[in-house]
Amino acid sequence: MPEAIRMRITLSGQKATVKVLMPHPMESGLRIDPQTKELVPKHFIHHVVATHNGRTVLDAQWSQAVSKNPFLEFRLQDAKAGDKVGVAWEDNHGETNSFETEIK
Amino acid sequence: MTRAARRSFLARLAGAICALALVPLRAFGAERNVEAFESKDVAKALRLIGAAAAIESDDVVLKAPDIAENSALVHIEIESKLPGTETIWVLADKNPQPLIAQFDLLPGVDPFVAVRIKMADSAFIRAVVKANGKYWYAKKDTKVTIGGCAG
Amino acid sequence: MSAAHVAACVLLVLASVAAGATPEEDRTAVVRTLEQRFPGVPLDDYVLGGLMRNPASRSHYEDIMAFPPFIADVERGKVLWETPFRNGRTYAECLPGGGRMIAGKYPLFDAHESRVITFEMALNRCRHDNGEPEYRYDDRATMGLLTAYARSLSDGMRMDIRVEGDAARAKYEDGRRLFYRRIGQMNFSCANCHLDNAGKIMRMETISPVVGQPAHFPIFRGGETVYTLHMRYTRCMEQVRAQPFPMGSEAFNNLEYFHSYLSNGLPMQASVYRR
Fold it and tell me: What order do you get walking across the sheet with C219-221 strand by strand?
């Protein structure tokens, strides 16, 4: 079970700034394990979807060169307190994770 | 990912979010451009995303550090001032596979994203934008350093 | 050089060491040296270390700190902090003020035990007093993360280290001697880099000033690996090719006592990003 996605939302007028932190190793496939001296296989989030009240607003494809524990920020229009903001990801191993919260 | 596998992933995501919120997630998104992501050459990656003829524009605002003090954690922000912005791509010219991210923007979100990337070497970071069917870009020369005494 | 000249020099050196400035005079002199080198930099900014005079690096640091990649690690530290011991008691019950706004008082001199107690020792004492095994000072997953969260409960507190009485003063002087002592194959002292050469570029990096350092530990180097102050001392000693003292040793505790005193008055912020 992957570690929970964290989200911080700040509402300013009708604009919501959404900052997301997705704990994930994001292994590039180029790193050598200091213990085994072998290459650590690629393991990375390759697809991320963000939703606003259930509607997709951002659909992202990523490579292994997004940093470990990926950060994503986007800005929602026409947002208000009580709106639902969701993020979901899938990695190249087929693991998925999602999180949804309300704007306060 | 095949089209069917992709639909199945989005269906699962929708399921995961529905479980939390009881609202439908409308599946959307372009097919992953596998060839572009696996391309080892920036010119080829640009061609494969359709941006071979992209024009440099001040309306694409790329914020990235002059010096990346930690090449594994480079915070960048891209904002497009071009009307009809549909997609933002991020590339680092000297990465083994230069294409790092593609963001498809849908109605309801600003033409802006911030993300953190890994850089293999000092290089141009490129932000490519597709707006009203045309391609534009901004680039930033970012130097990568090594070290360890700034505690 | 005549014998009289040598004797005079020896006397001068002895006078400057033994006759002894007070800790407050030491601190003021160090701060003055740095302020003359970095005119216009507010003292509070010294907690930013090498970033303090580089607006671009500072801006990037602030972007990272807006949602740091190590947030899940600090939250693991919070779980360690909040999980009661087997007897049902907690760290918050051991420490004054429930553990809030107290880290700036550490290290402190315990007259009863006649030794310096660091904040991490206070956490371990709490474990000991409640029948729990103490954490190792070199263990990132336990002490590293526990203190990463526990110290953050003092964010914003101003450093307030006290050196009162001869016994406390002796420990402070012990730390001070280590700070100025050249060690290792590279023959560097702490002071050579972080006082004499603070602000200069070494290995493409700005050397941080001694003042401000203890106020921002632990750090997460590379945005992922927690370093307590003692882990950082160890790394410094390795870098000058010296045999490091053990983490949690009296040598490091006394060094931390002196080192922390120099940052008195500066605002604390634990668990910050360093490259």
Answer: C225-227, C219-221, C272-274
The closest of B121, B117, B127, B112 to B142, measured between CA atoms, is: B121
Looking at the complex, report in whole angstroms how far the Cα of residue A37 sits from the nearest Cα belonging to chain B. 20
The model's pLDDT over C143-170, given as tens digits with 9 standing for 90+, comes to 999 999 999 999 999 999 999 999 999 9
Crossing angle of helices C250-261/C229-239, nearest 10°?
100
Among the residues of chain B, which ranges form H helices? 3-21, 34-38, 42-48
CA distance B148 to chain C (A): 7
Q: What is the pLDDT of residues C8-38, one digit of tens each?
A: 444 444 444 444 699 999 999 999 999 999 9
Candidates C97, C216, C100, C108; CA nearest to C161 is C108
* Minimum-distance CB partner of A55 among B13, B108, B114: B108
A42, A29 in Cβ contact below 8 A? yes
The model carries a pTM of 0.88
- Give CA–CA dist A44/C149, Å, rounded: 28
**For this structure, is C126 an active site residue?**
no
Residues of chain C with C-beta less than 8 angstroms from the C-beta of A31: none
Give me the residues of chain B with pLDDT under 70, please. Answer: 1-30, 146-151
- Alpha-carbon distance of B65 to B76, in angstroms, equals 8
Instruction: Pick the closest to residue B142 from B98, B150, B126, B128 (CA basis).
Output: B126
Report how far residue C216's alpha carbon sits from residue C233's, in angstroms, rounded to the nearest whole number: 14
Q: Are B73 and C223 in contact (CB under 8 A)?
A: yes
What is the structure's pLDDT at B15? 53
Complex-level ipTM: 0.96
CB contact under 8 A, A66 and B116: yes
The residue assigned the tokens 């009809």 is B84
Distances (CA, A) of C199 to A90, C160, C229: 44, 25, 20
